[in-house]
Amino acid sequence: MPRLPKNFEIAWVTIDELAPRGYLSTGPNTAIPNRFQANFQLENPLAGVVLEVFVGADLRPVAISVKVQASTKTPVTTSVMRQILIDQLVQRAVEEATVPASTREEWLATLPPGAVQPTDRNDAAPSADQRTRTQADDDARRAALIYAEAVARGNRAPAVAVANVMNRSRTQVARYIRRARELGILPPLGETEGD
């Protein structure tokens, strides 16, 4: 890890899981939420940072939203923004968000009957049919995250947003969204804005 500059210091961080909820196995004894918010208080520069993190099936965490809050004494400026090291914040957020594997097991127990459970990398190699189903469910989960984020941002065509981000046809996206509803990741059609 690169050495942190002397003018960057994290005072504390808290983690909030975001919906739709899910966990990915990161090892035999650990797991991580697939989407969470990290709330940072920085000591230097003196600012608050809210970071939304998405962790994909490849276990690569990415910041998808950053909000910086400061005060009138130390307002948000270009200089302050340069001092906020997003990569280090993401790394610290991942460390704080990592939970015992038992948390993931408890979450898996709450999935609807018949739902295909995510396959751990430590399990025996799945069959081609299992891989296809697991990939389809992973795609449905990813689509659900994008869809939910688009709805939260007020997008009137969240399915189009999914198609654009995932680079898939509208027909394929409709399948993903339908599967996400079957898995209980997205609410039934009557409870959301239209696709």
Provide structural commentary.
By secondary structure, this protein is an alpha+beta fold. It folds into two domains: 9-101; 111-191, no CATH class. 38% of the residues lie in helices and 24% in strands. The protein contains six helices and seven strands, in the order ββββββααβαααα. Strands 1-4-5-6 form a four-stranded antiparallel β-sheet, with helices on one face. The chain has a three-stranded antiparallel β-sheet with strand order 2-3-7. A hairpin with a 4-residue loop joins strand 2 and strand 3. The longest helix is centred in the last third of the chain and has 25 residues, at 128-152. The chain is globular. It starts with 8 loop residues before the first strand and ends in a 13-residue tail after the last helix. The relative contact order is 0.13.
Largest sheet: 4 strands, antiparallel
Structural class: alpha+beta
Overall average pLDDT: 81
End-to-end separation: 43 Å
Question: How many runs of DSSP E, i.e. beta strands?
Answer: 7
The topology string of helices and strands comes to EEEEEEHHEHHHH
Unreliable stretches (pLDDT < 50, length at least 5) are: 117-126
Residue fraction in strands: 15-25%
List the total number of helices. 6
Return Rg in Å.
19 Å
